[in-house]
Amino acid sequence: MNKRNYLATIVYNARGADGSSDEMIPKLSEIIRQSEGEVTKVENQGNHDFIYPQSKEVTSGTYLQFEIEADAEMPLRLKEKLKLEKKVDRVLIERK
């Protein structure tokens, strides 16, 4: 099966006890591995304010960018698994 390269930008809410980047990167990397993707690079892009916040309580988020090598079905599997994560606010997966 052909492997493709993807760039996944995951925005999560850093509020709470388990919200640090040091704890979220391994957790999200494991979710990507469970979705049959291979993480090749991770970049923490820091905390940014949302232009259009979805609620008044959450006006910013921490952006993590993952470079992933996987098959064509991985983005769908990954989005389904990330819907179950309470800390994940937004997900963008694009093909490189």
How would you describe the overall organization of this protein?
- The protein contains 2 helices and 4 strands.
- By secondary structure, the protein is of the alpha+beta class.
- The chain is elongated, with a radius of gyration of 13 Å.
- The two termini are 18 Å apart.
- The model has no long low-confidence stretch (mean pLDDT 90).
Give the helix level as a range of percent: 10-25%
Measured by DSSP, the beta-strand proportion falls in 35-45%
Q: Regions with pLDDT < 50 over 5+ consecutive residues? A: none
Radius of gyration using CA atoms only: 13 Å
| Record field, number of beta strands | 4
Main sheet properties? 4 strands, antiparallel
By secondary-structure content and strand pairing, the structural class works out as alpha+beta
Summarize, please.
The protein contains 2 helices and 4 strands; from the N terminus they run βαββαβ.
